[in-house]
Amino acid sequence: MKRWSGWFLGVAALLGGAAQAEQIGSVDTAFQWIGPDHKIVVEAYDDPKVGGVTCYVSRAKTGGIKGAVGLAEDKAEASIACRQVGPVTFTQPLPAREEVFNERLSVLFKRLRIVRMVDKSRNALVYLTYSDRLVDGSPMNAITAVAVDRGTAIPLK
What we know:
- The chain is mostly beta strands and 157 residues long.
- The protein has two helices and eight strands.
- The radius of gyration is 18 Å and the shape is elongated.
- Residues 1-18 have low confidence and may be disordered.
- InterPro entries: Uncharacterised_CreA (IPR010292).
């Protein structure tokens, strides 16, 4: 028993450091007799290295029995809008390209990813969302940008 409790604590510690989505709301898109309805969820992600920037992502979430037990594979489509919600600050220098968030869309293989890119010449942060699988991904993607005031230089690694 002690062995398992240590394992669970280790996993909880690892997951606790990951960026978590805050669900803003959802709308039902299809009624399901058993289990939750199919829906579109809107989630907010605060960029962990850039204070004052929040990304809002809308995506489909499969309901029904498979959705209730976590076996459903959600659609690859997602929409993203990142906005300046406060003064932009940087906790550390940013790489030119970095995965900021990822979320599981199926039991094993499919993930929704958000990547931040720095557009140095325009002093802007560009965010790209897409999904991928272990073998092949989806060409469906969405992009948004946050302009940073010219008086605030984006620190690069």
